[in-house]
Amino acid sequence: MVMGTCVASFAAQAAEPVKIGMITTLSTGAGYLGDDMRKGFELAISEHDGKLGGSDIDLIVEDDGLKPESARQIATRMIESEHVDLMTGIIFSNVAMAVVPKVVRDGMIYISTNAGPSVLAGAKCDANYFNAAYQNDNIHEAMGQYVQDQGFKKVYLLAPNYPAGKDALSGFKRFYKGEIADEVYTKLGQTDYAAEIASLRAAKPDAVFFFYPGGMGINFIKQYAQAGLKDEIPLFGPAFSADEHLVDAVGEAAVGMKNTSHWSPDMDNAASKKFVAGYVAKYGAKPSLYSVQGYDAANLIGSAIAAVGGDMSKKDDFRAALKKADFASVRGNFKFGNNNHPIQDFYVREVVADPDGGFTNKLVGKVFSDHVDAYASECKM
């Protein structure tokens, strides 16, 4: 009788779900970014009948409202009250910097689905921190190289004044060697760019590179076109300024805009085709880059859960399994560098009209193969 009780007790313990705390941005003008990421993550779970790596998943999702202090409070509650096994989901780098350094220092494993601030890739890298998306500079570095290769001599730069905005322009300048007409940082969440567009026009650049995700990008591109500059000075940006929602919201004004990314909806690999079809079937919408990163992060986590048999007390083994990145990424080539950030390929895309209605991105070419971020050498792991 006693033995039977012990076996039943062990079985109950073995069936404990893996608790994942997801803090992300679901409100404000940038709320669709976190929503897309969450949908991609949940798609991966649904494809495995509510499991990842053979274990049931308890996904606890909360909105940070793009407020670092709120995110800090949520993280504390998730760890102390919900007893989550790992954390993920933050979209914006200022929010990530308010949460990630402390939680990983305290022993929590964190897998980023978007934000990749430079300091966390370099001097403050940590064995408990993995980025399943990119390092902030990477996509902008690819555009810097592309604009350089296209022969543009004088480029005007704009980005929001927060860590990812500064990383963006640093990344672009690392590979673009021409003249910088001006480097302008605007308020995070700004909606009116009339003054910046007037200054830009006066500077007479032959190209503009901008980084404005979410609602910021929608407003900037629309106002740029309304000012009559779309056909005068070409716009270049990262995928975050040309995601599937954004280009549909902007419409014709976005057509022809080049942007760099580590994925495109027309990627020719089996994992990506399965993902796109599954996402459209489940949500009735096209997936964005944020959806991709949520999906890949979930499958990465699943590979590590499977490696430890669902026993999240095996932290060393779980980290080692994450490092192997033994999953089929929709991006194709994907592996982690010494600093737990991806080594991956980067491409140029062009915004085009979608034959099925709306607008989308198509691949134009590859810029980098197996690209390593600029801060890996500063990481002492």
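(the above was protein one; protein two follows)
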Amino acid sequence: MSAPDQAVPQTDLRALLEGSYRSALEAVAPARLLAPYLTGPRPDFVLAFGKAALPMLRAALEAYPGVPGLAVPPLGTPDLSVPEGAEVLPGSHPVPDENSTSAAEQALARVRALPEGARLLVLVSGGGSALLSAPWGVTLAQKQALTRDLLRAGAAIEEINAVRKHLSQVKGGRLAQATRAQVRALLISDVIGDDPSVIASGPTVPDATTFADALAVLDRYGIAAPEARAHLSSGARGDLPETPKPGELPHVENTVIGSNRVLLEAAQQFFGARGVRSVILSDTFAGEARDLAGFHASLVQSIRSYGTPFQGPLVLLSGGEATVTVRGEGRGGRNQEFALWLLETLGERGVYALSAGSDGIDGNSDAAGAFLTPDSLARAHAQNLDPRDFLARNDSGSFFAALGDALITGPSGHNLNDYRALLVE
């Protein structure tokens, strides 16, 4: 790859970054990921839940026509069509609602009704924790409030799931525990490390966490939640049954079929096909968006100044899942927050970059993420936009919308964590 010509319009390089995002998502579409696994005996029932529930269910029922199925996608999904004989019960994400509860109750009823020796195919994707919600020991409103508190506190997904598993009738292996059927679960991972027990809070996977672990999470973030604490404390004393532990679900087979790493590798192939060198930094980045932006900025500066640890020009690809400790009431999400901190850190020596969520929705905004260009800061100053002001309000979405640099895609029907691409010239 030759260094970008100064005469090349910025839109060309921005289009290259957007093309990498869209192409990578298409390459790892749920139906493509599922295809190699839809072989063998026909299932007697297919249950799909998560942000990719509908494309996964459609692919499964194309391979196994006539099999009854149930999909639980997010509310607002534009196309709810499924083959005849299948049912769709949308739920709420990221905070569960009555629809999520109704869907979980229906799913439990269907899997409990399957006789011994029947085959159950479970298709799981990110977002399933909220979409399939059957509160236990707390009301739905109390669980909603607790989920919001954990998200606002910046708790990691593993911590949130440890709590949710012990306040649920379906999570932490309890869904699989409820059926006599042979269970085959195919999972698309939206979590760092691709641990099946963490994906959608592991409804078909044995759970190594305990009631005591869940209590410790509430303590760590100073969350009161008295009703949840009473329930968890009762479980910690042994008054309530624990989630099934490793070795206790012999009738279940879990397989992870897609992940953030697969998404990044697809992007790397996209760039390679265009003669653009790229490197995958990691698919396991976690922590505050501000800190991740600082790390990426330092790397960009080192490459530019010293040619280490990589020689430019090249594209830096990274994934994982950032977090944001919310202190303001603005619009945006972790990907736009990352982009705005990257802009603030690099200053006038900007960079072409894209940071976006693979699900097409970043936080409470209508954008998937945001672009940066080398002149982003100059354009912001020309409009009297101060990045620090927007960061203080957690209002990155409004900042990039004002610049015209928000990436708007709508829900992708997928969820493979974050996608970041930085072009270092």
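Reviewer note on protein two: The radius of gyration is 22 Å.
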